Amino acid sequence: MKNKSSTPAVALEPTEQPATQGQALGALVREARTAKGWTLRETAPKIDVTWQWLQRMEGGAFHQPDASRMARLVGLLGIDPVRLAEVSGGYIPDELPDPIGYLRTKYGATDDQIADFERWRKEIKLGVLASDEAPPVTDLDSKDRATGEELS
């Protein structure tokens, strides 16, 4: 049986096309992940996804990935929200990253520092923290652990 199609098959020449939003977003995540020296398989469990999902995301398969997954990725990898907004066309997850995971990842916070943070967070929520009572200054206050730069 012959193909009765009147349109012949044509090989298309590859063209330079701008990356899709999903590809640009995936490239941003891949860049942040590899800058930390992490593999797909190392990173995925830290944000509660499969490495296959992360691979697809970095490959541009998702135009607007799940907000909770993106929030975890942004927090874990320390992706700048302004850069995320630029790359994603303004798409920013509704959810913020988990503050405990963020503090541990970005600043290497210890268990004692996390406990202090939790106490301050509860006091602030309850309106108990007096305005003249400030948290003690720690080494986390003076340097950004990711870059080593002095914080102002």
Query: What is the count of helical runs?
Result: 8
Q: What percentage of amino acids are in beta strands?
A: under 5%
What is the SS-derived class? mainly alpha
- Overall geometry comes to globular
Give the CA-CA distance, first to last residue: 76 Å
Sequence of secondary-structure elements: HHHHHHHH
Spatial extent as radius of gyration: 22 Å
Instruction: Give the fraction of residues assigned to helices.
Output: 40-55%
| Uncertain spans | 1-18
Number of strands: 0
Main β sheet profile = none
Name the average pLDDT: 73
Description:
The structure is a single chain. With 152 residues, the protein is mainly α. It has helices at residues 21-35, 40-43, 51-58, 67-77, 81-87, 99-107, 111-126, 139-142. The longest helix is centred in the C-terminal third of the chain and has 16 residues, at 111-126. It is globular and about 50 Å long. The model is unreliable at 1-18 (pLDDT under 50).
How would the blueprint of this fold be written?
Elements lengths: L20 H15 L4 H4 L7 H8 L8 H11 L3 H7 L11 H9 L3 H16 L12 H4 L10
